[in-house]
């Protein structure tokens, strides 16, 4: 492998792999680093079902040939565009198959430091190697963005964990576990723990827990018009977010922030109906105090009407989601971090995902504030891969022409 590259991609999930597949087709020199589908394989509990429908749970090769539907057909896995939940194990295996087919050059190495000087970037890898790159794409998804409420932060690690720390739940069989949260990860994790044999309860600030109802299938013409389907859900607002991320990018920042914050509040998937009902829930309670005592956690809760409640539990799992803050990325050099223009803790991005640091691009969760809720989901990789790969291909051709001119080499017909 050369120790320099036109483009370096950090992260090998749906976004990183889709972008690399597009760059490969466009013959843009690139290297991609990371463990394939690492977040899905290493931070999602086995038995989990995706809230995204089948048609929206895919990665994106340039010809859109290798969809999740095709993978399921090839491997005799039940699939439907709508109505059959996608298992996290199947989605992860599909991502690995996509990588082997379209991104064979993936390097399973960790980037430990990213710095910039003299107009190019230097990446230090976990094996000690250093490489230079003209452009860097950060596609690490939700990694490093786990959120734990401040009221719990002082608890020791053996008594407190984030939901992303648990792939296998059998260790909690017979144990008393308290799940904090009200959204998809909280409701599904609590359900899986209960089914695994744990004595589980859920505590949420919200006065009630919402579990979606399954939409009747097939959808009528009236439903299709009134609530058009999109990869991130049904409704005109969802269709706006998926169809017009470029228009979202042009909106004023306060408007963008309000739209992002108010879209798709905490809720569980429809497939939890009849299963989640067996989980005890303390809704409308906030954590007033959390203390370690005798190898257990004592939680003191207070409701909105002033009622107090005390819980003793063996372990607390914060299923409290993620909050994007690029300053928490451990590999981001201090020099780069200080140069980034941020909005709500994430970079302000150009129309082609470029930050205020020339040649540095962010996609996925870090791009939600710039392009809208579409970038929260794996399906946002389609827009990101198309737009960013086209930009990088143009930049690569321009750099090639500049270098050729400097060396006095005539451009090759058809490539200028």
Notes on the structure:
This protein is α/β, with parallel strands linked by helices. The protein has helices at residues 14-25, 38-42, 68-74, 88-102, 184-196, 221-226, 236-243, 245-250, 253-261, 334-339, 368-371, 381-406, and strands at residues 4-10, 30-33, 49-50, 86-87, 111-117, 120-125, 130-138, 160-162, 176-180, 199-204, 229-230, 233-234, 281-283, 285-293, 296-303, 308-313, 315-318, 342-343, 346-347, 360-362. The strands form six sheets. Strands 1, 2, 5, 6, 7 and 20 form a six-stranded mixed β-sheet that branches. A five-stranded parallel β-sheet has the order 8-17-9-10-13, with helices on one face. The chain starts with a strand and ends in a 10-residue tail after the last helix. The model is unreliable at 412-416 (pLDDT under 50).
């Amino acid at each position: 492998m050369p120790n320099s590259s036109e483009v370096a991609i950090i992260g090998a999930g749906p976004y990183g792999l889709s972008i690399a597949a597009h760059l490969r087709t466009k013959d843009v020199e690139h290297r991609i680093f990371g463990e394939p589908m690492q977040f899905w394989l290493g931070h999602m509990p086995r038995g989990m079902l995706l809230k995204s429908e089948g048609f929206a749970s895919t990665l994106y090769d340039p010809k859109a040939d290798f969809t999740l539907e095709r993978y399921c057909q090839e491997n005799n896995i039940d699939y439907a565009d709508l109505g059959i939940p996608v298992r996290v194990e199947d989605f992860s295996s599909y991502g690995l198959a996509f990588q082997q087919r379209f991104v064979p050059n993936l390097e399973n190495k960790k980037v430990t430091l990213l710095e910039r000087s003299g107009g190019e970037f230097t990446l230090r890898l976990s094996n000690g190697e250093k490489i230079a790159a003209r452009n860097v794409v950060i596609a690490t998804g939700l990694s490093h963005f786990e959120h734990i409420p401040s009221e719990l932060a002082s608890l020791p690690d053996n008594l407190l964990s984030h939901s992303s720390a648990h792939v296998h739940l059998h260790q909690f069989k017979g144990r008393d576990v308290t799940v904090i949260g009200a959204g998809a990860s909280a409701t599904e994790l609590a359900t899986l723990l209960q089914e695994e044999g744990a004595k589980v309860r859920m505590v949420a600030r919200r006065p009630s827990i919402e579990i979606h109802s399954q939409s009747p299938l097939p959808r009528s013409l009236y439903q299709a018009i009134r609530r058009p389907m999109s990869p991130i859900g049904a409704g005109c607002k969802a269709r706006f977010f998926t169809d017009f991320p470029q228009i979202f990018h042009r909106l004023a920042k306060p408007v963008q922030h309000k739209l992002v914050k108010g879209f798709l509040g905490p809720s569980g998937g429809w497939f939890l109906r009849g299963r989640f009902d067996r989980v005890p829930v303390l809704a409308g309670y906030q954590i007033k105090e959390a203390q370690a005592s005798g190898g257990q956690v004592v939680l003191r809760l207070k409701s909105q009407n002033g009622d107090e409640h005390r819980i003793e539990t063996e372990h607390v799992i914060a299923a409290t989601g993620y909050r994007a803050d690029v300053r928490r990325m451990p590999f981001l050099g201090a020099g780069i971090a200080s140069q980034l223009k941020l909005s709500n803790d994430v970079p302000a991005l150009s129309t082609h995902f470029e930050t205020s640091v020339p040649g540095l691009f962010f996609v996925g969760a870090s791009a939600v504030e710039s392009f809208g809720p579409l970038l929260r989901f794996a399906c946002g990789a389609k827009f990101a891969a198309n737009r960013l790969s086209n930009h990088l291909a143009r930049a690569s051709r321009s750099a090639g022409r500049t270098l050729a001119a400097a060396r006095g080499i005539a451009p090759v017909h058809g490539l200028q």
